[in-house]
Amino acid sequence: MSVVPNATLHIRTSNIDTNLTLVLVVAAALYFLLPFFFRKNLVDKDGNCIPPGPLFRLPYLPDYPERTLHAWAKKFGPLYSFFLGNQLYVVVSDSNMARELLVNNGAIFSSRKQYFIKNQTILRGRAITASPYGETWRNHRKIAAQLLTAKAIQGYNDVLDYEARIMIRSMYKESMQGALPINPAHYTGRYTLNNMLTLSFATRTDTTADPLIQRILAMAMEFNDLTGPLSNLVDFIEPLQWLPNKMHARASKLHDDFIEVYGSMVLAVKERMDAGENVPHCLAKVLIEGQQQEKLDWEDVCMLSAAFALGGVHSTSGIIQWFLALIGKHPDIQARAHHELDSIVGRDRWPSAEDEKDLPYIRAIIKEVLRVHAPFWNATPHSSTEDFVYNGMYIPKGTAVILNCYTLHHNEARYPDPYTFNPDRYIGDELSSAESAHKGNAMERDHWTFGAGRRICPGINVAERILFLAISRLLWAFAVHELPNEPISLEEYEGTSGRTPVPYRVHLVPRHDRVHTALEAEQEISRCEL
């Protein structure tokens, strides 16, 4: 007799589970199909519709999202839209449109979306990269600009020069003078890390085995892993933010780690200043001296330091790695670069920052690397602060606006044969990338790697100097050879926020006897002298 009620209960529970599953499936289907029904009805008061695009809402973009965005640009045109969860994106894939929207109308398109993981949880709406457009952002950018203008960079020439020489020397010695292949990632990473540590905290490291440096590098990798653009479900589906999840827990911990680690580094600089040491000009010193005047709280100081120190490490290191991956496949380009260096610089000294203006082919190689392997194909999305209509297309307030660098950099009208690595396309371009970004004709800009408008990368000048010193000296010292049995992939990459090649090895063969002489003869500059 007692069996029947239990069986009935089981049937009812099963029916409830089935019905609940059905409801959830239907709800999810409606959620992702909704744009199909209201895309044409999402209009402004004058009847202007949002730009065309895919009919369905997406939970996230697949791996290699730039390929999806490029395919959509071909299908829907240079200005299109799509939905990720509850967020509307507008994608700009044309140079003139990019200038019109992000530069000429920068007052509207210069804010940032407050993404749940990156902006709200890790950076808490602070630092240059995360702050919404407004007075706070302007003040923070003004602080950073004190160290990043073209004039300010001249004061760091000795430091940047020193770190480039240390990188070359390490590669030379640890490859047994070119006898053994090496993975360049470790050396390029330490080079860019030391540059940013010096600019940020007036310090450097001789080894990445230092526990503090290990922690900084681990935090950088965690930040890149957590903040990949267009890949975090929780950023686009708001109800998920109310539920416990591992991403949020990791992001909260990273925020606390930033406060602890970068805060301790700022305090270390303050202790040196309080002890009467003549601390070199650096971000931490600027923040300490201006904290009260700029009305910065402790979290502002820590997050500004974190964003500044992180900003150039992974991306700049990645660009140098892409260069070495590319140049070994192009012996003809290498030979021409070697000839230019031998003719202008000679073999008795290193190329220096003063030589840059006289080495047009080296400059062209760097620009071409930045074009074909930008570290951020989708940049960091801008956000509109007002409704806007462009060419009859409605861009609502709060829209995330993507600068589609991949499509811009593969525009055949601007870059003939765009999939070919060809530095010759930049011969005659005597402008720096910072200068080129301000050209009136957007189709004449060299590339869009550093972004556009008021949110253009504030570190563009220092990045260009770091890249020139590294790449010119690698070419002066070595012939780069790809290993016959270890082909390097130029299609695959690692990282969702900042692209780097999958790990590879190359042979760096010293070009002449003067390489050994130069490396052995040079005396290391002491930290005090720096």
TrEMBL record:
Give the Gene Ontology MF terms in alphabetical order. heme binding; iron ion binding; monooxygenase activity; oxidoreductase activity, acting on paired donors, with incorporation or reduction of molecular oxygen
The positions annotated for binding heme are C457
Q: Pfam families, from UniProt?
A: p450 (PF00067)
Instruction: Just give the chief location class.
Output: membrane
Q: Which is one Gene Ontology cellular component term of this protein?
A: membrane
So which cofactors does this thing need? heme
Subcellular localization, per the record? Membrane
Q: Which UniProt key words apply to this protein?
A: Heme, Iron, Membrane, Metal-binding, Monooxygenase, Oxidoreductase, Transmembrane, Transmembrane helix
Record flagged with keyword Repeat: no
Pathways involved: Secondary metabolite biosynthesis
Q: Where are the transmembrane segments?
A: 20-38
- The UniProt entry's coiled-coil ranges are none
Q: Identify its protein family.
A: Belongs to the cytochrome P450 family.
PANTHER family membership: CYTOCHROME P450 MONOOXYGENASE ALNH-RELATED, P450, PUTATIVE (EUROFUNG)-RELATED-RELATED
Any idea what this protein is called? Cytochrome P450
